[in-house]
Design a protein that fits this description.
This protein has an eight-stranded mixed sheet with strand order 1-7-6-5-2-3-4-8, sandwiched between helices. With 202 residues, the protein is an alpha+beta fold. The chain has one domain (7-174): Endonuclease Chain A (Endonuclease, Chain A, 2-Layer Sandwich). It has helices at residues 11-22, 37-46, 68-79, 113-117, 132-144, 148-157, 180-188; strands at residues 7-10, 27-31, 52-57, 84-88, 96-99, 103-107, 122-127, 146-147. A hairpin with a 3-residue loop joins strand 5 and strand 6. This is PLD phosphodiesterase domain-containing protein.
């Protein structure tokens, strides 16, 4: 039977709907390989002072190096609230956001500026009660994740990776992220190739 509880959103309309939901939320689970400081700031600005956050993302060594400063800035913003826990999962590709185990956003969009403002995405917003397996999967991924602090300490002990500037990020990531895990697979598969991408400044 068709449901009126789910709505399809384009990338640019996601944050508007999300802000309204965040104003009433008590707890948020953010799942996605890429989260930048622009989207983090938008989420934090729309959230109440008691809301608790869980963020599941990629470890830095599984990110496009150019994105890492933006990820660090986003993670710092959440951790500075004192109400956030961040975990990492090496092969994470899912994109979802769950509020109070009741409302979910899931689809093709990643949680960074280019994806939500420029890229052509589809995100579904609806009730978790109608797709309970979504919450089961998200919670399962969360439980499989490792605390960010261990990854953060490892990164702090090393040098700045190739592609990183070591400078603080600001303004959000404004280009499409090249997934290093996907690129690795394509390089290793005979006959496969990765199309060149625009190296616009992030």
């Amino acid at each position: 039977m068709p449901s009126n509880a789910w709505k399809a959103l384009g990338g640019p309309s996601v944050l508007g709907h999300l802000r309204a939901d965040l104003a009433r939320a008590r707890a948020v689970l953010i799942v996605g390989p890429w989260l930048d400081e622009h989207v983090a700031a938008a989420i934090l600005a729309a959230s109440g002072n008691s809301i608790r956050f869980r963020v599941l993302t990629r470890p830095y060594d599984a990110m496009d190096p150019g994105f890492v400063p933006h990820a660090r800035a986003a993670h710092s913003a959440f951790l500075e609230t004192g109400r956030a826990e961040i975990r990492t999962l090496q092969t994470l590709h899912a994109k979802a956001l769950v509020l109070d185990d009741e409302v979910s956003y899931c689809g093709s969009a990643n949680w960074y500026r280019y994806s939500l403002e420029t890229s052509k995405e589809i995100v579904l917003r609806g009730l978790v009660s109608e797709v309970p397996a979504l919450l089961d999967l998200a919670e399962g991924y969360w439980q499989a994740g490792e605390p960010l602090q261990a990854v953060w300490d490892d990164a702090a002990r090393g040098s700045v990776p190739p592609g990183e500037t070591g400078k603080p990020a600001s303004g959000g990531y404004r280009a499409e992220v090249l997934d290093p895990l996907a690129a690795k697979v394509l390089r290793e598969v005979k006959g496969a190739f990765v199309l060149g991408r625009d190296k616009r400044k992030a």
